Amino acid sequence: MANRKIPMRQCVGCREMKAKKDMIRVIKTAPEEGADSEILLDTTGRKNGRGAYLCPNSECLGKAIKSKGLERSLKMPIPGDVYEMLTKEMEEFETR
């Protein structure tokens, strides 16, 4: 039986390579008419948009905010209120 290849992704916070299924995807949606693009947590990993991956803990999110890793990966400046929303969503995800 052949071994299947495990897709790996790099965390934008701690910069470690981990299995894709163990990571949380942060996406930037395509801008729609009259609206800007949104930044969301994609827990399913299947939504459309440019993605960046984070470890499922708030430490890595904090590192990504401090190093501006998310801004580089998503190729856009990210306002502070979006970081607050991502922090709240990450805390909810950790408590599940």
Compact description:
The protein is α+β, with helices and mostly antiparallel strands. Helices cover 33% and strands 21% of the residues. It has a single domain, classed as YlxR-like (Hypothetical Cytosolic Protein, Chain: A, 2-Layer Sandwich), CATH 3.30.1230.10.
Walkthrough of the structure:
The chain is globular, with a radius of gyration of 14 Å. It has three helices and five strands. With 96 residues, it is an alpha+beta fold. The chain has helices at 58-67, 69-74, 80-95, and strands spanning 8-10, 17-19, 24-28, 39-42, 50-54. The chain is 33% helix and 21% strand. It has one domain (8-95): YlxR-like (Hypothetical Cytosolic Protein, Chain: A, 2-Layer Sandwich), CATH 3.30.1230.10.
The ordered H/E elements are: EEEEEHHH
Total beta strands: 5
Strand content: 15-25%
Distance between the ends:
35 Å
Q: What's the SSE blueprint?
A:
Elements: E1 8-10, E2 17-19, E3 24-28, E4 39-42, E5 50-54, H1 58-67, H2 69-74, H3 80-95
Antiparallel strand pairs: 1-2, 3-4, 3-5
Helix pairs in contact: 1-3
